[in-house]
Each structure stands twice: as C-alpha cells, then as structure tokens.
Amino acid sequence: WAYAVGFTVLPHVGGFLGWLINRKEIPLWYEKLKKPSWCPPRKIFPVAWTVLYTGMGYASYLVWNDLGGCSSKAVVPLGLYGAQLALNWLWPPFFFGARNLRLALIDILCLDGLVIGTMCSWYRINKIATLLMVPYLGWLAMATCLTIHIWKDNPEQK
C-alpha cells in the first residue's frame, strides 16, 4: 500500500509547489487578464486539480504494478507519464511566474500530446488506469482552450 500512496501523492507535490511559488501572482496579475466568459471560477481550480492529480497518480501506480515495478517494460509507459507530469508542473511557472503566455501555450499543447501518448501506451496494460486519465484529458482540453483565448485576448502580455 505504501507504493500506492506514494504514486498517488507524487503529482500533488509539483502541483502544490507550483501553487506555493505562484500564489501571489494570481490576485495581482491573473485577475486582470481578459478571460472568456466560460472561464471557471478561481476556486474551482484547486478542487479540480486535487481530484485529477489523485486519479492520475493512482493510475500510474496501477500501470507500475501491472508491469512488475521498474522493469524494462515500464520505461515507455512511465516515461511518457513522467514527461507529461513534468510539463504539467512547468505550466504554472511559465504562465504565472514568467507571465509568458506563449511559452505556457507551447507547454500545454505538448502536454496534451504527451497525455494522449501516455493513455495510448497504458491502454493495453491497464484499461482502468487509462479511464482514470480521461477526466484529466478533458480538463486539459478546457485548460488548453482557456490558454489559447488568454494568449489571443491579451496581446500586451505576449
């Protein structure tokens, strides 16, 4: 059970650090950006990310467990997962910290591709793990559209 907890908690570490480092930029800068009318309220984001990080973390444990731990068979599926997790953790410093909307957009577009690749590589290993990633991919689709709109609608921030 220790591995299950560790894998499940891991995504939260980067998410929490990203929030901790960038939390002051949200009221100072983010609130002033022009955003589409369908942008979720700010209070929804931490709840959504807590649920999504928990699901993806547990999914990664299922894949790791089904592949017998850190075996040669785990390199690609867990490598893709690790790469997407790194891009996920980099988005807040790019967007909030550096205020670089273009770099944040490039990051999230690459992230989308890596998440799809991760899910494709996991499908034959563990279908439940793949299904646990579906809400994350859906949220990322919304976040990608939101990033595109913010990038386009705030040209002085580019």
TrEMBL record:
InterPro entries: TspO/MBR-related_sf (IPR038330), TspO_MBR (IPR004307). Gene3D superfamilies: TspO/MBR protein. Pfam families: TspO_MBR. GO terms for cellular component: mitochondrial outer membrane. The keyword Transmembrane helix applies. The keyword Endoplasmic reticulum does not apply. Keywords: Membrane, Transmembrane, Transmembrane helix. It is a multi-pass membrane protein. The chain crosses the membrane at residues 6-23, 44-62, 74-91, 103-125, 131-151. It is found in: Membrane. Belongs to the TspO/BZRP family. This is Translocator protein. It comes from Cariama cristata (Red-legged seriema).
